[in-house]
Amino acid sequence: MFMEDTLREIAVWAFPVLVAIVFHEVAHGWVAFRFGDPTAARMGRLTLNPISHIDPFGTILLPALLIVVGAPFLFGYAKPVPVNFHNLNHPKRDMIWVALAGPMTNILLAIASMGVLKFVDLAGNAGLTLPAFFVTPLALMAQSSININVMLAAFNLFPIPPLDGGRVLVGLLPEPYSSILARIEPYGFLIILLLLMTHTLDVFLGPVVHFLVWLLRALWMG
Q: Does residue 169 contact residue 189 with C-beta atoms inside 8 Å?
């Protein structure tokens, strides 16, 4: 029974996780291309084909492990889309838009997923008889999609490079503060790992997740 429930849980989460992280990375590359950097396009990374973006550990093993152990949050990542910020038309300014593209795409995906849930509710209220084998997985995947996209957006907005929030802050800060923060990037993931292990990051993620959920509901209801 445990194995059956785990496989069902993985099946419900697998597609939303894959869509969330692939669209996130492609958004970075597409916006960079629009602002003058063709690096991702030349490397064939401006594609929604997941094979081009899958990282064996970050895309498959890590999310599956978090599901199996019943972690309170789900996280995953794809191979980063390469961006050469020096190729951008206005590197410091355009870096902000390239960085924001990923989290904003996750928020748009969460809004679309809310729309799917709304459709299921409206169909039921209207008396439409939709097959359970279609409606139930669809609703579960939509709810999973909302959760993973909100979490990815919140996590990536944390203001430490190389996360998107850190690069936004590098683009916004004047010198010399911008360069000082940028020099943290090689150690950024070690800092983030330490914050995760000590649950210090929860202090940031909790309020941001709640704000994004409130914002999504406001946008949808509005």
A: no
Question: Tens of pLDDT along 94-149?
Answer: 999 999 999 999 999 999 999 888 887 776 665 566 666 677 788 888 988 998 99
The closest alpha carbon to 110, from 80, 84, 143, belongs to 143
CA distance 215 to 209: 10
| Residue type, position 155, single letter | F
Domain total for the chain?
Answer: 1
Q: How far, in Å, CA of 42 to CA of 19, rounded?
A: 22
Catalytic site residue 25? yes
pLDDT tens for 8-66 read 666 677 888 889 999 999 999 999 999 999 999 999 899 988 888 888 887 878 777 77
Q: Which token pair is 91?
A: 């590197």
Pairwise CA distance, residues 72 & 103, whole Å? 21
pTM: 0.88
Which one of 9, 25, 175, 185 is the catalytic residue?
Answer: 25
